[in-house]
From TrEMBL:
It comes from the Bacteria. The keyword Transcription regulation does not apply. InterPro entries: MATE_fam, MATE_MdtK, MdtK-like. This is Multidrug-efflux transporter. It comes from Kangsaoukella pontilimi. GO terms for molecular function: antiporter activity; xenobiotic transmembrane transporter activity. It is found in: Cell inner membrane. One of its GO terms (biological process) is monoatomic ion transport.
């Protein structure tokens, strides 16, 4: 059971607030790892099925994810708005924010689905292999049907997280991961009497998973939170609320896109460095992504806890919550640094065939990248925690500008210069990423703490 505000005395210290963050954040960390398991199982099973199919989905997947991550901005906006409203028992505002978050997500999903039908021609126009382009376009066209339910799932996850009901999110995501593996096995390969559909089967499995998750989370919300009467008058537009969700959500979506684009650009630059560097980069990034889920979970918990304190106009509690989040993340960073610096070859070796002739070179390159990742994780944690805290006080537009500047004006050029114009090679690309993320962390943390130290009292949300 999550620790709520009534269970913690008003004068509580860092320890109690840290426990509240752990109770709220651990299921979120687990759900993120389960979500990663879904994409990993897709890649593994398509790789077993056909290399060309895997290449097609590898081409389409990042484009689909970019659309999804932009549309998710409206869902992420729901989290601090609901947390602040719920902290003062404003049932009407909880309902309005969630309902209009659903509206915007559905509108975005429908609008974004239409262009997905024509991506085969786009991939061909940028010089991709015709067969890979055909498979990628087919996958996009089918998977696009699942974009709207996937975005609705994100809204419901934000709503339930804001009310500190995160265990159900973990359970539903684990269930979706298991279901995805079973449906992939049936629909990709033609097992259990199902037709052999290849990439179409993988796309259909994803759609089914999104729809079932959507139904499960909506049903749980109706069952467990009847006081909010969530879907009452759902068809009626609420222009004031839709404006507030939109203003808070579109900068979050673009911030997410800027960060995803940063790592996509780093992969392109690694390809220019060489095949070994690109392979090591992919492995090291996968490992770093796993450990990053801890900080992302803490960041989302901070959004909720800071949002609740901000909604009640309690600046001291906002500051204590922020410090508790930093303390938890610092502990995770310390463990990660020890792991990355002491056994990097073991971690990288898990991803490389023992008989692969390039294994020694990949292990050396991957170990070097994980050494940089020990520092990289520290600054990455700082920036994602700051984003979570700033979203809790419903501050998203200036943070978007800070992040875009740090990632693209500083980080990408630094990676390009250090990676391609110095002997550092792939290590230089990662050092450039570290510089960009460090600047983002400094700017964003500075904005949060300056604002909190400057106020004597915060306005209610």
């Amino acid at each position: 059971m999550a620790i709520n505000d009534q269970q913690i005395a008003p004068g509580r210290g860092l320890g109690a607030e840290a426990r509240a963050l752990v109770s709220l954040g651990l299921p979120l960390v687990g759900s993120h790892l389960a979500q990663m398991a879904i994409t990993t199982s897709d890649a593994l099973m398509l790789g077993w099925y056909d290399v060309t199919a895997l290449a097609g989905v590898s081409l389409a997947g990042p484009v689909y994810f970019c659309l999804f991550i932009v549309g998710s901005g409206f869902a992420w906006a729901v989290m601090p708005m609901v947390a602040s409203a719920a902290s003062v028992d404003d049932h009407r505002q909880v309902r309005r924010a969630t309902r209009m978050g659903l509206w915007l997500s559905v509108i975005f999903g429908i609008v974004a689905t239409f262009p997905l039908l024509f991506f085969e021609e786009l991939f061909l126009s940028i010089g991709q292999d015709p067969e890979v382009s055909r498979i990628a376009g087919l996958y996009m066209a089918v998977a696009g049907v699942g974009l709207t339910p996937a975005l609705i799932v994100m809204v419901m996850k934000s709503y339930l997280s804001a009310l500190e009901m995160t265990r159900i999110i973990l359970l539903v995501t684990i269930g979706a991961a298991v279901l995805n593996v079973l449906l992939n096995y049936a629909l990709i390969f033609g097992n259990f009497g199902a037709p052999e559909l290849g990439v179409v089967g993988a796309a259909l499995a994803s759609i089914v998973g999104h729809v079932i998750s959507m139904v499960a989370l909506c049903a749980y919300a109706l069952w467990k939170t009847p006081q909010y009467d969530l879907f009452r008058n759902f068809w009626r537009p609420d222009w004031e609320a839709i404006g507030r969700v939109f203003q808070l959500g579109w900068p979050i979506g673009l911030t997410n896109l800027a960060e995803v684009g940063l790592f996509a650009a780093s992969s392109v630059m690694m390809g220019w460095v060489g095949t070994i560097a690109l392979a090591a980069h992919g492995i090291a990034l996968q490992i770093a992504s796993l450990t990053f889920m801890v900080h992302l979970g803490v960041s989302q918990a901070l959004t909720v806890r800071v949002g609740r304190a901000w909604g009640r106009g309690e600046p001291d509690r906002v500051r204590v919550t922020g410090l508790a989040g930093l303390m938890l993340s610092a502990g995770a960073v310390t463990l990660t640094m020890i792991l990355f610096l002491t056994v990097p070859e073991v971690l990288v070796g898990v991803f490389v065939d023992p008989d692969d002739p390039d294994r020694p070179a990949i292990l050396i390159a991957g170990a070097a990248l994980l050494a940089v990742a020990a520092l990289f994780q520290t600054v990455d944690a700082l920036q994602v925690l700051a984003l979570g805290m700033l979203r809790g006080v419903q501050d998203t537009r200036v943070p978007m500008l800070y992040a875009a500047f740090s990632y693209w004006v500083v980080g990408v050029p630094a990676s390009y210069v250090l990676g391609l114009h110095t002997p550092l090679g792939g290590t230089g690309v990662w050092l450039g990423l570290t510089i960009g993320l460090a600047l983002a962390g400094i700017l964003l943390q500075g904005r949060f703490w300056r604002r909190q130290l400057a106020v004597g009292a915060l306005p209610a949300g």
